[in-house]
């Protein structure tokens, strides 16, 4: 690596380029086992204390992935996918290298980095993917096609040649010959996967959404008036930036938008639909999300309610005539896409100008992937706050939807006051002697199912939970409790007793939607201040007044779950008291594997710039509890310990709650 710096590097230049690569066989083996295709990391280190840091960050995020952040340093990584984003946003190789050279303290950009940029930008504007008359097509530049054939492009059997034509290259200002191919039905994911992942061809996806609007009749123009925001609402600056990246050069681009929880993903998606002004299909993750989108359309827009259709198992079928309307907004969830109902089957036959996939990180899941591939859409937008998956399949969204078009960083949104400032605390708690002995007994024989159950359902955690509830009730805070084992604890009968002692309801997948809605209403009206949840609250929960999150158990090393749960309390708060207006606690059983599991999540949170403190349960100083309540709590926890120990050896091979995750 070239570490020589420019003579004036103390002044304007504010980034350092470096290459991080495995230094020995052990590190190389670790990288291989992680399924990473890019072994070398091409890093950009930004000095955030520099006066021009904000402008530099806005430039870097166009062609590099944000990796980690501290008070003074922000790290970015250049990858093929980050360059795919840059090219979609109108950047080319020379512009990227020019901006790096302008900002870098390095005397010369390392050759490995310039070679990587050149290699991964050479195919842009040479493959176009689009929908035309109910079929998907891909146009491939002739020279690239010849190269693909030489390199044994395996998807040729899924392509039917239609015609050759000349197309002007806007970057090089010359004509190139393209071959238009029709893609075999339901095989467009496979074609795009091989082009993007195996051959590093950044497939371009544009939709000329203005073309039809110019020719609409006068009566249709009147209907289009409903596609607008109510005058009293407006987008924040980060939402406007995202919208501009979606709509460039009078074309709509397919791709993924990453906004932190609480930063307005739903409102951004609504504005994409308002700009397209055409029939839109929105696929959510859970039932709660469907109702949230419906309420948001009604709250923020002039949309006629008759043009909002919901498809859910609990709702009557939507008539075919309604689904055929030119300006209908259809909202459903991923479970319905595989349904045999007539309305959802009809949805898969229609051509959709716009398809919005909320919580798009779930798209790689096999049960939804095949069904989504049947949908026909001119434009696809994926929304997520948590682009993480434990199976390393997150990159699939970039060829199934499109490249990342925009990402807002949580640190910046906190500074601008668009989201709350969260203070994170990890609380270590021990085990009662008899309980610990049982844990050690099963640990010695490597029975992970039982040991996992024991540390997650540790009754001592509920002592800490009680202390935290007392502390934050004294502050008049609003509390959400996340419990991975809510169903198993409910089976002991002791969780209900704990909830009753604290006058708080329990919500799991078993609770009907009407009952959930009633509980949420009481919470928003300040008639309840604590709710205990299973995994159902990990996403799609809209309780903006909540400002304290406490997780007493969690889904192993799932970084996505960590940020989703933090996101439940991250909505912007009014009347902030103190430097931080929200608190997020993780209660961890010390001396167990749970410490290691939470460490992975902890590092991810710290890398995003959140403050993080680790304390022991003894350091908590809650208000004095009433003597009678303390006696009741001790009885409940004694019973909980006995029943957990009695039932923890019951057979089972899945340690997860069946709770709608």
UniProtKB/TrEMBL annotation:
<dbReference type="GO" id="GO:0005524">
    <property type="term" value="F:ATP binding"/>
</dbReference>
<feature type="domain" description="Helicase C-terminal">
    <location>
        <begin position="463"/>
        <end position="628"/>
    </location>
</feature>
<dbReference type="Pfam" id="PF04851">
    <property type="entry name" value="ResIII"/>
</dbReference>
<dbReference type="GO" id="GO:0016787">
    <property type="term" value="F:hydrolase activity"/>
</dbReference>
<dbReference type="Pfam" id="PF13625">
    <property type="entry name" value="Helicase_C_3"/>
</dbReference>
<feature type="domain" description="Helicase ATP-binding">
    <location>
        <begin position="246"/>
        <end position="405"/>
    </location>
</feature>
<keyword id="KW-0347">Helicase</keyword>
<dbReference type="GO" id="GO:0005675">
    <property type="term" value="C:transcription factor TFIIH holo complex"/>
</dbReference>
<dbReference type="Pfam" id="PF16203">
    <property type="entry name" value="ERCC3_RAD25_C"/>
</dbReference>
<dbReference type="GO" id="GO:0006367">
    <property type="term" value="P:transcription initiation at RNA polymerase II promoter"/>
</dbReference>
<keyword id="KW-0547">Nucleotide-binding</keyword>
<dbReference type="InterPro" id="IPR050615">
    <property type="entry name" value="ATP-dep_DNA_Helicase"/>
</dbReference>
<dbReference type="InterPro" id="IPR006935">
    <property type="entry name" value="Helicase/UvrB_N"/>
</dbReference>
<dbReference type="InterPro" id="IPR032830">
    <property type="entry name" value="XPB/Ssl2_N"/>
</dbReference>
<dbReference type="GO" id="GO:0043138">
    <property type="term" value="F:3'-5' DNA helicase activity"/>
</dbReference>
<dbReference type="InterPro" id="IPR032438">
    <property type="entry name" value="ERCC3_RAD25_C"/>
</dbReference>
<dbReference type="GO" id="GO:0000112">
    <property type="term" value="C:nucleotide-excision repair factor 3 complex"/>
</dbReference>
<comment type="similarity">
    <text>Belongs to the helicase family. RAD25/XPB subfamily.</text>
</comment>
<protein>
    <recommendedName>
        <fullName>DNA 3'-5' helicase</fullName>
        <ecNumber>5.6.2.4</ecNumber>
    </recommendedName>
</protein>
<dbReference type="InterPro" id="IPR014001">
    <property type="entry name" value="Helicase_ATP-bd"/>
</dbReference>
<dbReference type="InterPro" id="IPR001650">
    <property type="entry name" value="Helicase_C-like"/>
</dbReference>
<dbReference type="GO" id="GO:0003677">
    <property type="term" value="F:DNA binding"/>
</dbReference>
<dbReference type="GO" id="GO:0097550">
    <property type="term" value="C:transcription preinitiation complex"/>
</dbReference>
<keyword id="KW-0378">Hydrolase</keyword>
<keyword id="KW-0413">Isomerase</keyword>
<keyword id="KW-0067">ATP-binding</keyword>
């Amino acid at each position: 690596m070239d570490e020589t710096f420019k003579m004036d590097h103390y002044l304007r230049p504010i980034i350092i380029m470096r290459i991080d690569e495995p230094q020995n066989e052990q590190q190389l083996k670790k990288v291989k086992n992680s399924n990473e295709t890019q072994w070398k990391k091409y890093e950009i280190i930004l000095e955030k204390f520099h006066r021009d840091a904000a402008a530099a960050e806005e430039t870097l995020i166009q062609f590099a992935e944000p990796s980690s952040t501290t008070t003074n340093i922000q790290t970015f990584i250049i990858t093929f996918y980050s360059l795919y984003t840059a090219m979609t946003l109108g950047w080319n190789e020379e512009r990227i290298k020019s901006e790096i050279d302008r900002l870098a303290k390095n005397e010369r950009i390392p050759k490995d980095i310039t070679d990587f940029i050149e290699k991964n930008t050479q195919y842009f504007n040479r493959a176009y993917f689009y929908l035309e008359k109910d079929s998907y097509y891909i146009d491939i530049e002739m020279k690239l096609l010849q190269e693909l054939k030489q390199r044994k492009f395996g998807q040729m059997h899924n392509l039917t040649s239609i015609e050759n034509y000349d197309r002007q290259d806007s970057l090089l200002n010359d004509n190139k010959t393209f071959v238009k191919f029709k893609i075999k039905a339901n095989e467009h994911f496979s074609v795009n996967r091989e082009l993007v992942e195996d051959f590093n061809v950044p497939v371009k996806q544009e939709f000329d959404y203005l073309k039809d609007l110019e020719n609409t009749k006068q009566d249709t123009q009147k209907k289009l008036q409903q596609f607008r925001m109510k005058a009293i609402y407006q987008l924040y600056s980060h939402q406007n930036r995202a919208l501009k990246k979606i709509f460039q050069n009078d074309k709509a681009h397919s791709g993924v938008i990453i906004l932190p929880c609480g930063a307005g993903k739903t409102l951004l998606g609504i504005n994409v639909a308002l700009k397209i002004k055409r029939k839109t299909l929105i696929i959510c993750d859970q039932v709660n999300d469907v109702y949230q989108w419906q309420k948001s359309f009604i709250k923020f827009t002039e949309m006629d309610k008759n043009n909002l259709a919901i498809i859910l198992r609990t709702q009557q079928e939507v008539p075919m005539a309604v689904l055929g309307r030119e300006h209908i907004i259809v909202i459903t969830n991923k479970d319905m896409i595989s349904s045999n109902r007539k309305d959802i089957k009809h949805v898969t036959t229609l051509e959709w100008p716009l398809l919005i996939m909320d919580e798009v990180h779930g798209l790689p899941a096999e049960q939804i992937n095949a069904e989504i591939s049947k949908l026909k859409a001119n434009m696809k937008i994926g929304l997520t706050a948590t682009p993480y998956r434990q199976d390393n399949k997150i990159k699939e969204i970039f060829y199934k939807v499109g490249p990342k078009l925009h990402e807002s960083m949580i640190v910046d949104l906190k500074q601008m006051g668009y989201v709350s400032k969260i203070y994170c605390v990890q609380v270590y708690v021990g085990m009662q002697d008899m309980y610990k002995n049982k844990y050690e007994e099963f640990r010695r024989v490597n029975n992970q199912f039982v040991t996992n159950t024991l540390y997650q359902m540790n009754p001592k955690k509920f002592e800490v939970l009680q202390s935290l509830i007392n502390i934050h009730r004294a502050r008049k805070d609003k509390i959400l409790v996340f419990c991975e084992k809510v169903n198993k604890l409910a089976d002991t009968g002791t969780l209900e007793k704990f909830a009753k002692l604290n006058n708080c309801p329990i919500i799991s997948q078993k609770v009907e939607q009407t009952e959930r809605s009633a509980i949420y209403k009481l919470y928003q009206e300040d008639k309840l201040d604590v709710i205990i949840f299973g995994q159902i609250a990990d996403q799609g929960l809209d309780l903006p007044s909540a400002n304290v999150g406490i997780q007493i158990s969690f889904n192993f090393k799932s970084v996505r779950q960590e940020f989703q749960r933090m996101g439940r309390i991250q909505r912007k708060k009014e009347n902030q008291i103190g430097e931080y207006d929200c608190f997020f606690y993780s209660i961890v059983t010390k001396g167990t594997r749970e410490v290691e599991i939470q460490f992975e999540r902890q590092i991810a949170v710290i890398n995003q710039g959140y403050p993080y403190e680790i304390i022991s349960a003894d350091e908590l100083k809650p208000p004095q509890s009433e003597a009678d309540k303390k006696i009741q709590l001790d009885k409940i926890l004694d019973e909980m310990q006995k029943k957990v120990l009695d039932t923890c050896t019951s057979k089972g091979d899945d340690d997860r709650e069946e709770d709608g995750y």
